[in-house]
Amino acid sequence: MKRRILLLCLALLLCTSVVNEASAKSTGKKVYYSNKVIVLMYHHIDAEESGATISPARFGTHMKLLHERGYNVITIEQFYDFMLNKGKVPDNAVVITFDDGYDSYRKYAVPIMDKYNMVGTHFIIGQSSDLLNTNTEHLTWDAMKKLKEEGHSFYSHTYNLHHYADLNKNGSKTGPMLTNRLYVKELGRVETAAEYKKRITDDLTKMEQRLKEELDNEYGIIAFPYGAYNDTVKQVLKQLDVRLFVTIKPGINKPGTDIVYRLNAGTPKMTANKFVDLLRKYHD
């Protein structure tokens, strides 16, 4: 009797194992990580690759791999709620981000993401979209409005602080404009702490105003130029109700912090195999 019960239990376990294995094969989905989010960083897309510029074909390969391997692309708004408000995200969650506001996002990235029912987020430089006076074509506000209706989103990369500037009289020392007190030639000295804070406050305030005026943005999110920030920058941004701070530090994101890590996938060196390895590094 005991032997029959034992055999019956073994048969049930075997059946359950077979069913589970068949189910896994039928869905083709694996859980690489849970309650975490990978954020990918890109910049520019062009047929001629260099620096932070990759080809449409390379970006297409990355998106195809995300789709085929069972990653779930979510919006940055869902990610915001996950990070700050205990919101839920699916397993293998990924956010796709671009920096600098290049129009190549509309021309190349969006059609590729559309193919896989994905959307992305672009951190734009406000002045570049207001004046459109840059060598590389930038997104217009009208283009962004249309893309927002399709599920894409646009947030701050500052209004006009995405530059290095002189920190001393002879220009031998330079640094990011957002995080440093600059040398002012007209005054013959470095900014005071109060002047520095007013300068960045004016810029960041203007950027949030433009995003609200043009796109009716409800969330406050910024990607720091060059990934640089300090306590004063965060203090000013929090007063403007900007709550999520995106860096260029590599890592996977867990809830309960306002600092966001990103993986730089937007380089010509990021082959298909290296892209897979980059993601796999953060699997459980």
TrEMBL record:
Keywords: Signal. GO terms for biological process: carbohydrate metabolic process. GO terms for cellular component: extracellular region. Residues 92-284 form the NodB homology domain. InterPro entries: Glyco_hydro/deAcase_b/a-brl, NODB_dom, Polysacch_Deacetylase. CDD domains: CE4_NodB_like_5s_6s. It is found in: Secreted. Residues 1-21 form the signal peptide. One of its GO terms (molecular function) is hydrolase activity, acting on carbon-nitrogen (but not peptide) bonds. Pfam families: Polysacc_deac_1. This is NodB homology domain-containing protein. It comes from Paenibacillus montaniterrae.
